[in-house]
Give the backbone structure.
Amino acid sequence: MKPLLVLVAMLTGLLLVACRANPAPQPEEATDERGITAELPTQTPTAPPTDTPLPEATDTPSPTDTPVPPDTPVPTVAPEPTAVEAPEPSPTPEPAPTSPPETLAAPILLAPEDDETFASVDSDVVFRWSETTRPLAEDEYYVLVITHLEGNDYTWTKETSVSLADGKPWLIDLGPELKWQVVIARQRTGEANENPAGAEVSDYSLTGVCYWHK
């Protein structure tokens, strides 16, 4: 034990002698151009950097999946209509002038003669008149108009004569005076005793008078 203490004491003494032989360096004096001595700053020893403890890692919540918004449809802009020049209207042809319906000449009465008298139901009373200047159309007829005590009787025919004894013997009871005329007209209803008024295509003939009695 003593040798160890002696060794320590010797080392301590050597350290003290060394410190006295090498005093601490004094700061150097700097001399500027004017010959003024300035004391240089003493360098301060820099402390070694210390390890800064890193912050403890904390559990960061993982990001949640954010739903992606659906694509917003972009409105479709309809193209503006292109102005189309309207075609000029074609001139409307003027209708051809319509000629008035042809008016035929009035038939001429041929028989019986005026004031002729028939005294029996068996008498052959036949009314005759002239033919028109052209053939009758399909719907055109001669109309024999007989005026008696109770009114008018109309007989439509394509012929130019009518026999009362064969067709209308009952007219003898509506006499004795019978007035008669003939006109050409278009038939509208097809009735046997149709009034031709308003459908005439010719003038009325003159009025004849005869007598038929029992």
Remarks:
- Residues 30-38 have pLDDT under 50 and may be disordered.
- The CA atoms of residues 126 and 191 lie 22 Å apart.
